[in-house]
Amino acid sequence: MKKRVLYSDLQEPEGPVCLPDGKIYVVEMSSTRNCVSRIDTYGRYQQVGHPGWRPNGMAIDGDGNLWIAGAGVKKLVRMRPDGVILNTYEGPEGRPYLWPNDLVFGQNGLLYMTDSGIDPDKFFEGQTIRADFRDCEYDGRVFEIDPSNGRVLRVIDSGLSFPNGIAFDANDVLYVGETLTGNIYRYDLISSASIEAKLFGNVVIGLPNDCVGPDGMAFGDDGQLYCAVFGQGDVSVLDCDGRIVERIPTCGIRPTNIAFCEDRTGGAVVTVLDLGCLEWLDLPCRGRGLYRPKLK
């Protein structure tokens, strides 16, 4: 498989968003940047906005505005592509967001977001994950949000151990990765009488002592789920039955997210935290089309 590094001077990158013209947005979670950046087809880099401390996952709507899971500021942030902040939302009254992590739009025009269920200040010691991270208390949640006003419509699930990546398949079934267990769950939001988490698969090899587990993920148009596995140094590929069919090594050990390219070149990009880079993978499929509702 062909691979190459598209850009290598990023600081703790996450949340890639690809545009049809080949441009790519990423967030940089480092305390020295805390920004959204854009990389064009020539590899030119530009910081476009600062949504607050430790921005995390990102999605784009049909108006071209960016939706950012603001982990450090504990808010959902809506930003214009020129960096102007349009709105910020703090979550349900009395039970605000703790760690907004990743997000995706559904076919119904609603926004779905994971919250890892712990204050980042309690998960990190400086820039390092605390050694006793498995002993921390987590109340990870999955939210359904009305993007027209930022109001949480319902909590899809709660009590999870660091929910992270989130994606819809071609049948509009929602998938969520749980980093600390390695599990990926599926939620039938349409045909099920009651929404229950059903185990889809697990991406972790063995019983690692370090923080290893599913991070960002995306579906290909081949029906397979491509999941960046943080701490394991690969993109694990799961078929429609949740079986691992391939593990694609990444250039670093801490890939944080994956997004399919939308221009004619195809392939996918992976943000790699430990090397501070954006890596391109020549995958054999295109990405499943993402929902991008117009909100104006």
Automatic annotation (TrEMBL):
It comes from the Bacteria. InterPro entries: 6-blade_b-propeller_TolB-like (IPR011042), SGL (IPR013658), SMP-30/CGR1_Lactonase (IPR051262). SUPFAM superfamilies: Calcium-dependent phosphotriesterase. Coiled coil: none annotated. Residues 22-93, 97-264 form the SMP-30/Gluconolactonase/LRE-like region domain. Pfam families: SGL. This is SMP-30/gluconolactonase/LRE family protein. It comes from Microbulbifer echini.
